[in-house]
# Entry
Amino acid sequence: RSMVEGLNAVVRATYPGSAVSFKPNSPGGGVLAIAEGQADFTATATGTEVKLANDGTAPFSKPLKGKFSYVMQLYDNQFIHFLMTKEWADQNGIRSWADIAAKKPRMRLAINRPDNPQTTIGGPYEVMKAHGFTIQDIEKWGGSYVLGNSQIGLDAITDGKADVFMNARNLGDSLVKDVASKRSLLWIDGDRGVIQKAADVFNNKADMVEKGTYPFMEKDYPTVRMWVALLAGSHVSDEVVYKYVKAVAENEKRVQDIGGSLKSAFTTAKMTTNPANLPYHPGALRYYQEKGLVK
# Structure
C-alpha cells in the first residue's frame, strides 16, 4: 500500500487536483479489476499474473488478453526465499532440491495461497516441477501446508509450526534475520540452470543470493528473481496513462524515496523493460517514444 500511495502522491504533486486513490487488492485481483474496468491501474503484477490472465488459467476463469496493457516496470528485485529449518534438514538429510525430490520427506510447508500466484504458481510450484514433483506431492508424502503471506509463514517457522518456507522477501530482510536468530535456518541449494528453466515459464530469471546475505549463508545460493510492473486497463484513456508515466519518469529521485524495492531498483531508464513483451498502453508508448526510450 505504501508504494502505491507514494506513486499516487508523485502524480498529485505533478498534476495538482488529480483524483488518484488506492483500492486494496491482491496481485491477481488487481489484474482482474483493471481488465473489468473496476480499477485503472494495478502496481503489483508480475510475469505470473500477466501470463495466467492472458491465458485464462486459474486463478483467472477466462482469458483477459487485450483487456490490459503494460505501463512500466517498477522494480526487478523480488526474490523468492527458499528456506528450511536446520533441524528438519538434518533429520531428513536434506540440503538441496534434488534431495527433496529423491527422499520425499514429510514437510510442513509455509507458502502463500494459490490466489496470490506470483509467490506460488510463478515461483515455488515451477521450481518443484523442474525437480520432478508438484505441490500436491507434499501432502502425498504426509506433509501439510501453512497457507498465508510471508509474515504468517515466518511466524510459523519461529513457532515450530512449519519446517520449510517459500515466499518473497527483500534480500537481507530484517525479519528473516530475526527468525534465524531464534531458529537455525538453511537455504535450499540447487542448480542455477534448473532454477532458470522454472523461471523461464513466467519470464523471470534465476539469480544468486550472495554469501553472507544472511548469517546462515556460507555460499551463494540460486533462486527465482521476479520483476513487478504497473499495468493499466484498456479502458483507461491515453492522456491519463501518459500523465501518470510522465510524472513518475520525471521524478526518479522522489519515486526512489518511497522506499522498499523502489529505493534500490527503480530507474527511469528501466521503466520500459518489458520481459513478458506485453503491448504497451498507447499513452505509455507515446511518452516513451517522445523521450526516445523505445522506437
Q: What stands out?
A: The mean pLDDT is 95. The longest strand covers residues 68-85. The CA atoms of residues 210 and 220 lie 4 Å apart.
